């Protein structure tokens, strides 16, 4: 990898440009793949706190029991936790549908609000269903609103101009995402984590996310949680200085990343979206939901109740069409610590 380094340019920027490059395509052999479940080089196994997560609570939000989560850390990155797809088979479609159909709804805020009237962005899903349900046309002239979606904010809405949160710009945080986030946080040892803000990023195959650090929250003692759905990405995790050389890793659908402690304020970026390996896309991400076999129906009747509503074939057809070439990333964070309030401005 030293061959990609150019004098006068910081190491992070060099590697970002290297993986973003299309021609010639970069060599991805140095990218860590946690789905291989191998602890070599920088990768170390992590012991979580499974007793803190009730099996029934995990089941209700689509997670395996916490004792079955495969968690890893990286040498030199204390506080960084990577959980390789802790989702039960068949549960990701619910979360994908929430990200595409539910969370972009008002009163939540999205990038389309910046240049369209609120009545035009009132129901992004409904306005996109016809376009994404019809057969692909070689020259479909206009993208649907869903395909033009780049970000959605939840809870305390992040202001992209001022880089700040405020008490005035707030709507209720989704209860289902709150519960999911709290189960992950509990398993990682954060019993008092309160999800207060979320940012959903929607990536097309040619998208990227520049080098940045998430420091706008007033309390940095709480973790930053990140959930990945759809296509895969190369994620770069650097240091406390923007020029520090980063470590490259894949994020696949269902993976969860936690940045806490000394890793909470590290620079990071996403230079590249890649087709997900077919073996890692569970069958429900490749086909429409099939009818449940009788033996599975009996197992489901004996299982704890789930908060995940079934995804209809019609909804999944739209979701599937979207994620075949796109990636969704959800970051959840706590903005205020106990007893904290926003400063007067």
Automatic annotation (TrEMBL):
What is its subcellular localisation?
A: Nucleus
Note on cofactor = Binds 1 Fe(2+) ion per subunit.
Fe2OG dioxygenase domain location, by residue? 192-336
One Gene Ontology MF term: class I DNA-(apurinic or apyrimidinic site) endonuclease activity
Residues binding Fe cation, per UniProt: 212, 214, 268
- In its UniProt record, which GO terms are filed under biological process? DNA repair; oxidative RNA demethylation; positive regulation of gene expression, epigenetic; regulation of translational initiation by tRNA modification; RNA repair
Q: InterPro entries, per this entry?
A: Alkb (IPR004574), AlkB-like (IPR027450), AlkB-like_sf (IPR037151), Oxoglu/Fe-dep_dioxygenase_dom (IPR005123)
Q: Which residues form a coiled coil?
A: none
> What EC identifiers does the entry list?
1.14.11.33, 1.14.11.51, 4.2.99.18
Q: Which UniProt keywords apply?
A: Dioxygenase, DNA damage, DNA repair, Iron, Lyase, Metal-binding, Multifunctional enzyme, Nucleus, Oxidoreductase, RNA repair, Transcription, Transcription regulation, Translation regulation
**From which domain of life does this come?**
Eukaryota
On subunit structure and binding partners, the annotation says:
Monomer. Interacts with DNAJB6.
The protein's name in its UniProt record:
Nucleic acid dioxygenase ALKBH1
User: Per the UniProt entry, what species is this protein from, by scientific name?
Assistant: Knipowitschia caucasica (Caucasian dwarf goby)
């Amino acid at each position: 990898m030293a061959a990609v380094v150019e004098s006068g340019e910081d190491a992070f920027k060099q590697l970002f440009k290297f993986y973003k490059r299309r021609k010639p395509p970069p060599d991805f052999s140095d990218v860590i793949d946690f789905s291989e479940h191998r602890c070599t080089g920088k990768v170390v196994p992590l012991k979580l706190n499974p007793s803190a997560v009730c099996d029934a609570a995990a089941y209700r939000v689509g997670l395996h029991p916490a004792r079955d989560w495969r968690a890893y850390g990286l040498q030199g990155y204390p506080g960084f936790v990577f959980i390789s797809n802790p989702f039960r088979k068949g549960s990701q479609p619910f979360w994908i549908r929430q990200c595409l159909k539910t969370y972009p709804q008002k009163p939540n805020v999205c990038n389309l609000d910046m240049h369209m009237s609120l009545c035009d962005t009132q129901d992004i899903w409904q306005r996109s269903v016809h376009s994404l349900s019809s057969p692909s046309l070689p020259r479909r002239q206009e993208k649907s609103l869903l395909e033009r979606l780049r970000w959605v904010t939840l809870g305390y809405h992040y202001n992209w101009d001022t880089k700040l949160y405020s008490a005035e710009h707030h709507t209720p945080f989704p209860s289902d995402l709150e519960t999911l986030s709290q189960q992950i946080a509990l398993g990682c040892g954060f019993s008092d984590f309160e999800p207060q803000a979320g940012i959903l990023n929607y990536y097309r195959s040619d998208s990227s996310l520049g080098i940045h650090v998430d420091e706008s929250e007033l309390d940095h003692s709480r973790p930053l949680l990140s959930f990945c759905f759809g296509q895969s990405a190369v994620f770069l995790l650097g240091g406390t200085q923007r020029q520090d050389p980063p470590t490259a890793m894949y994020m696949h659908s269902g993976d969860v990343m936690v940045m806490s402690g000394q890793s909470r304020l590290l620079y990071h970026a996403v230079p590249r979206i890649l087709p997900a390996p077919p073996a890692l896309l569970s069958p429900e991400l490749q086909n429409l939901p099939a009818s449940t076999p009788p033996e599975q129906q009996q197992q489901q009747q004996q299982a704890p109740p789930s908060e995940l509503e079934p995804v209809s074939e019609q909804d999944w057809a739209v979701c599937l069409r979207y994620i075949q070439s796109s990636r969704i990333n959800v970051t959840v964070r706590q903005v205020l610590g106990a007893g904290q309030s926003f400063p007067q401005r």
